[in-house]
């Protein structure tokens, strides 16, 4: 299972689409672009500019039908007939991470977060805090597309992303691997600042509207809250992720 997931293109690349994002990726010396796919209907100056940029970067350009490009991009309205697969060096399957000799000790699990801006900001924050992994399921969470990359200010390319099918699948794998599952909730009896954490812990961040899904909730070890003395009911999920991430930094520094 781990080997299969590890070689999947979905676990190796972030796909960006549209003329400007593709040109930006090709022009960034810090990124490795695996290939560019150009619709066979793409002609004229824009297509020529992309081909020149790809040649200058030593990146192969493949031609495909416009329909194929739309399918691969997953966004037919904005792909503009071009996409690029960018190597994400720290992205891998959750299965391979758990099979590792030194599995990650602290990970975030995104469960039903559908706003690209939130996913992008969480990836940026978690990377800044040095967390071992952010589990981004392929189903039920915003796709890792140019909107997520933009919200992360480009950090998404080098974030420690762990892929799996769904949040429920991830929760089961984590529980089987001996992780404690901690979910943020305003009604949590323990607070984030005083909860006792095991050696391996996963922190569930629920969706903007529905919170933690029922499938994942069944496997939660403990619900924890963020103390809020002010008169505010809850934080945006990306703000909560920032508080959580840097509380883990504080603990690791003790």
UniProtKB/TrEMBL annotation:
Upper classification of the organism: Bacteria, Bacillati, Actinomycetota, Actinomycetes, Pseudonocardiales
Stated family: Belongs to the class IV-like SAM-binding methyltransferase superfamily. RNA methyltransferase TrmH family.
InterPro entries: Alpha/beta_knot_MTases, Ribosomal_eL30-like_sf, rRNA_MeTrfase_TrmH, SpoU_MeTrfase, SpoU_subst-bd, tRNA_m1G_MTases_N
Residue ranges of every copy of the RNA 2-O ribose methyltransferase substrate binding domain listed in the record: 15-92
Protein name: RNA methyltransferase
First and last residue of the signal peptide: none
Domain of life: Bacteria
Cited Pfam families: SpoU_methylase (PF00588), SpoU_sub_bind (PF08032)
GO biological process: methylation
Gene3D superfamilies: 3.30.1330.30, 3.40.1280.10
UniProt keyword Transferase present: yes
GO molecular function: methyltransferase activity
Swiss-Prot/TrEMBL keywords: Methyltransferase, Transferase
SMART domains with a match to the protein in the record: SpoU_sub_bind
